[in-house]
Amino acid sequence: MVARRKVAVVGVALSDCGRVDDVTPYALHAQAARRALADAGLDRSLIDGFASAGLGTLAPVEVAAHLGLRPTWVDSTSVGGSTWEVMAAHAADAVAAGHARAVLLAYGSTARADVRAGRRTGTLSFGSRGPAQFEVPYGHTLIAKYAMAARRHMIEYGTTIEQLAQVAVQARANAALNPEALFRTPVTVDEVAAGPMIADPFTKLHCCVRSDGGAAVLLVAEEYVRDCRTRPVWVLGSGEAVSHASMSDWPDFTVSPAAVSGRLAFARAGVRPSEIDVAELYDAFTYMTLVTLEDLGFCAKGEGGAFVGGDRLLVRGGALPVNTDGGGLSAQHPGMRGLFLLVEAVRQLRGECGDRQVRRADGSLPRLAVASGTGGWFCSSGTVVLGSG
């Protein structure tokens, strides 16, 4: 049996993000990929693995061809926003097992520009085939599913709309420190409450922004780390889980599949949630942040509302800095945002985040980070634990 190799993330990058009206999604993939390779200081010829989803009919084939790659390992897993954490887990396993030496994950989307140009409409649902056919006739939109889950948590545990608003307020405060964030102007709980209602109980600022943008992450086997220009960030453990196909299949609206993927990731990494220095969590809506914090074990079930108070999630002075770039609520959300979580986690561990850089109590850089993506309507989750040591 071949010994399993350690796996490191050595290159991360974003494409141009926010308002990008004059390029294609393929161009954003390529821009992010080139930047990630330059970040690592490695040549494209080393890449023999490629993963992508969300573009074209055969995403990894078409995008790889556009990038001039001919991989011998590919992944096109598509489970919504958690796609990229799941792909990172698959890529790390492949590299560790010797099936690939370097795997590139790439994503790009012009979701905002397409809506503005009339090339597409807002994503209210994923269609009416399969299990969805039993929900769509009742006007059960994608956002309504998240709103129902949030309302269930409020009923079960007394979580308040003001506590959920705190997630948006602190995400915006973190975004104010990020020059790449789409929205940086601070907001208050009252301003969140005063916004137009989108799906009860969510007003506009409880919901993610719509942006353009792309991202790329490069993972390599340990023997190539010495050739890189960056300090490696090691993949310590990962987990993935799916839970339900429709809302009627979901046993408990207050428990997400992160309860499973997180438990697996932390166990495989050999660390506890209390040891994590920074958390990058999928936040298409404020409730996602709150319930994911519970399900990853940062607080007990039902205590998320109290946990997110007291500026706990802030880069500056927060006990557990969360979504340090401003998250999907303020920084960028071009569709499947999971890859952006990995980019920010790696940058934080490498100490490259400028004004939004997290520091431990002794002033040192963070050592452990978790990136946890959620997909669909809370029906999939991928969690990756990363370490700088």
UniProtKB/TrEMBL annotation:
Native species: Streptomyces dubilierae
SUPFAM superfamilies membership: Thiolase-like
Lineage: Bacteria, Bacillati, Actinomycetota, Actinomycetes, Kitasatosporales
Protein name: Acetyl-CoA acetyltransferase
Domain Thiolase C-terminal, chain residue ranges per copy: 239-387
Lineage top rank: taxon: Bacteria
InterPro entries reported in the protein's UniProt record: Thiolase (IPR002155), Thiolase-like (IPR016039), Thiolase_C_2 (IPR055140)
